[in-house]
Design goal:
Lipocalin; ten-stranded antiparallel barrel
């Protein structure tokens, strides 16, 4: 008699649910709750493959995107990425109990753009994102009936364990990251950077597919 090997269920992750609150969490589509409610144990990773479908960039946005290439290229900087492959890898950070995010965007010429960041469940809002070089931002989490949003709530520079809040005139603008459910195991990743005086500076949309178990 053959014994069927039963794969254990992935551990539940309540960190994003706790940030949102039970009511807001329950209003999200089941697919989004599944993606952000699955704990990646022991430094494991999950990979999503997709494509860049839209990219808008004003002159001011282009200048800022080129400037921050000096600190790790946290913003998309090449309009030629439209129609090119995109890959996102999320890895559990054992040390900080946060998550490492690596985003790769193809380009028509040259090497792909690779963005590294680390999400840590810390700070006044309960969630912070670090891009390296001691630079980070606080994030507020919000939910609608079909999307989960991460909204910038202040930028800071960390030096010798201290966080120095950057003044408004040094802020690149208001950043909003969206995770929109599209059904059929697809989701839209949106990035919008706007400024109170300069308006919309960067807008990028990428469509991804769920990883097949």
């Amino acid at each position: 008699m053959k014994h069927q090997l039963i794969k254990p269920e992935p551990a539940k992750d309540c960190r994003f649910r706790d940030l949102l609150g039970e009511g807001a969490w329950c209003c999200l589509p089941p697919a989004i709750r599944r993606r952000f409610g699955k704990r990646l144990s022991g430094g494991n990773s999950v990979t999503y493959q997709g494509q860049v479908v839209r990219m808008r960039m004003s002159a001011a946005g282009w200048c800022i995107a080129q400037l921050v290439r000096l600190v790790g290229s946290p913003l998309p900087f090449d309009r030629s990425s439209v129609g090119q492959p995109a890959v996102v890898v999320v890895t559990e950070d054992i040390q900080s109990e946060g998550q490492f995010w690596v985003r790769q965007y193809g380009r028509k010429r040259g090497f792909p753009q690779v963005v590294h960041s680390s999400k840590r469940f810390d700070g006044p809002t309960g969630l912070e994102e670090y891009i390296g070089y001691g630079i980070g931002m606080a994030l507020r989490v919000a939910a609608t009936e079909n999307a989960l949003y991460f909204k910038s709530a202040g930028y800071f520079l960390q030096l010798r364990g201290r966080k120095l809040r950057l003044p408004a005139f040094l802020s690149p603008g208001n950043l909003v990251i969206g995770h929109h459910d599209m059904g059929d195991n697809n989701f839209l990743f949106s990035l919008h950077l706007s400024h109170p005086l300069l308006g919309e500076m960067i807008a990028q949309d990428c469509v991804f597919q769920d990883t097949k178990e």
